[in-house]
């Protein structure tokens, strides 16, 4: 039986009791690294003697800090901020829908989510195996401008849940709010230190405590950083980028960051559950530990063994009808990074 936590449960109240502390905390960021040796083709990376090289370390101290995890059915409510093409939305929707899909061929997105499901709350209840795409809100007229701060992102979410027409439902128990910004929107720290981040809204600003994530389309601003390996930074010469599996560099690059943030929101929604390190304002979470690792042999910023489609595109897992390249996640059971395309599975 899964444990639920009510809207005004004690962990929420305790965590939010000191407003000044909250305002100093920094949302957890996701950044995409690139291999330091670009001459080595990712798919040709030579395996070491140990297949457990993928981020394996006896020094990683990922601990549970007694906070809630998302054990109920998870619903992802999406805010499309700015101008989006129909096919771009389809790619992202299918990725989210694929998290719980049972009919995708191996290696699958749902197989990737099984690592997330290993994490439990203090009652031993596992993170939910069901992730639904919830209601969506379009903000095509850039209601808060084309340059957003971290705090103004919360204002965008507030606008979406308080809109006069078709507001997003308020679901503080198992809802995630995913703000996706178009390629002409700049967000604070975008490209310099973050491709996406997650946190929770402040009641003083939004009226509710809602776990949320932001991910931006980097194609215009910094595809070489946030959509790597489908784009390569200019300062790395003579490296040919990989072909994206869905024909959209910016959105295919977003997919892995979206996966990163959803996995961490499920396992650490209020910054007091699963993370390494002693500071909850700068936690190292289950996806942070595996940045840039997409297959067996990954580590030291090498991507690892991935797959090549018939069309020449690079991917490492299958969705319902599409292919995706998504970073691996840390397993506290195995004590290393893993994914559905691991060669020793």
UniProtKB/TrEMBL annotation:
User: Which top-level group of life is the source organism from?
Assistant: Eukaryota
The UniProt similarity line reads:
Belongs to the EXORDIUM family.
The secretion signal range is: 1-30
Please name the PANTHER family in this protein's record. PROTEIN EXORDIUM-LIKE 3, PROTEIN EXORDIUM-LIKE 5
Please give the name of this protein. Answer: Protein EXORDIUM-like 3
Q: What does the UniProt entry say about where the protein is found?
A: Secreted, Extracellular space, Apoplast
> What are its GO cellular component terms?
apoplast
What InterPro entries has UniProt attached to this entry?
Answer: EXORDIUM-like (IPR006766)
Task: State the UniProt keywords alphabetically.
Answer: Apoplast, Secreted, Signal
């Amino acid at each position: 039986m899964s444990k639920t936590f009510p809207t005004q449960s004690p962990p929420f109240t305790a965590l939010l009791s000191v407003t000044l502390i909250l305002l100093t905390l920094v949302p957890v960021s996701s950044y995409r690294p690139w291999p330091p040796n670009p001459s080595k083709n990712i798919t040709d990376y030579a395996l070491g003697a140990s297949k457990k090289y993928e981020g394996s370390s006896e020094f990683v101290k990922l601990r549970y800090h007694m906070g809630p995890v998302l054990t109920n059915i998870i619903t992802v409510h999406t805010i499309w901020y700015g101008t989006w093409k129909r096919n771009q939305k389809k790619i992202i929707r299918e990725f989210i829908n694929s998290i719980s899909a049972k009919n995708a061929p191996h290696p699958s997105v749902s197989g990737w989510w099984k690592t997330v499901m290993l994490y439990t709350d203090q009652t031993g209840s596992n993170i939910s195996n069901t992730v639904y795409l919830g209601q969506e809100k379009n903000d095509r007229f850039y209601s808060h401008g084309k340059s957003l701060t971290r705090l103004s992102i919360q204002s965008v979410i507030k606008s979406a849940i308080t809109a006069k027409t078709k507001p997003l439902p308020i679901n503080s128990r198992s809802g995630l709010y995913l703000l996706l910004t178009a390629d002409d929107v700049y967000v604070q720290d975008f490209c310099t230190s973050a491709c996406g981040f997650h946190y929770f809204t402040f009641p003083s600003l939004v009226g509710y405590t809602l776990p949320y994530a932001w991910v931006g389309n980097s194609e215009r601003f910094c595809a070489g950083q946030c959509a790597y390996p489908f784009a390569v930074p200019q300062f790395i010469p003579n490296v040919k980028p990989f072909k994206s599996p869905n024909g959209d560099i910016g959105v295919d690059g977003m997919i892995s960051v979206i996966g990163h943030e959803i996995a961490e929101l499920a396992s650490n929604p209020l910054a007091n559950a699963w993370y390494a390190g002693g500071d909850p304002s700068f936690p190292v979470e289950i996806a942070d530990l595996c940045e840039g690792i997409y297959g067996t042999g990954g580590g030291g910023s090498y991507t690892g063994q991935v797959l090549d489609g018939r069309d020449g595109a690079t991917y490492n897992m299958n969705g319902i009808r599409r292919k995706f390249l998504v970073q691996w996640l840390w397993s506290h059971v195995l004590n290393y990074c893993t994914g559905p395309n691991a060669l020793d599975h």
